[in-house]
Amino acid sequence: MYGLLGFPLGHSFSKGWFEGRGYKYTNFEYPTVEEFLAKLPAEVRGFSVTIPHKQNIIPYLDSMSDAACQIGAVNCVVVDPLTGVKTGDNTDVVGFWGALEPLIGEGAKKAAILGSGGASKAVEWIMLQNGIECTVVSRTDNGYSSFEPQNYDVIVNATPLGMFPKVDAAPPIDYSKISRNTICYDLVYNPSDTRFLKLCRRQGATVIGGIKMLHLQAEAALRLFEAPR
User: Fold this and answer.
1) How confident is the model at residue 140, as a pLDDT?
2) What SS3 class is residue 84?
3) Does 111 share its domain with 34?
4) Are 63 and 224 within 8 A, CB to CB?
5) Domains in the chain: how many in total?
6) CB 155 within 8 A of CB 111
7) Where in the sequence is the domain holding 48, given as residue range(s)?
8) Which position among 54, 109, 166, 177 bears the catalytic label?
9) 72 lies in the same domain as 142
10) Model confidence over 102-123: pLDDT tens digits?
């Protein structure tokens, strides 16, 4: 049995993806990690982690992969069936880069990441691993007001803005300055065509939705869940 920890989970497609492949899967919709762990069924052999718990889960893990340690965020936890040991990993990097790499080319050198949460940390890590300079833009430091989109080859929305049911929202940037040479990537997958993507497409930018990343990271998580131990 597998599952997904997050709050809220009304936007999530993960349950349908796993059940469509014949797996028993449960949405664990808890506002705190403590409440979830207190009620974690013994038969769970792994679970994915989404907002707001990608960093909150870390103190409760027994171990983490090197990548997850470096990123500072976890989206996948493997539970040992014999010992109950919980090992955190991050498959967001697999999903994100797998969707971006075919389009990015060798000329891309600068990326802007909108948002500073767990997903943002995974995006920044994999970008830096591939030689792309990153700037994290967040509302906490009023970064949106001074953000200049024309200065970046890739712009990533790593916030939940635009996610179902608040589909009319989008990061508050000046979309008129986005270049047609820019790749704009939204990690939100529900809806598949977000307001962020529509506004970027209107400027002629190449756009990538989050659904491919979702599928690629889920496939990577499943491989971890089912790996021999």
Assistant:
1) 76
2) coil
3) no
4) no
5) 2
6) yes
7) 2-90+214-226
8) 54
9) no
10) 998 777 799 999 999 999 999 9
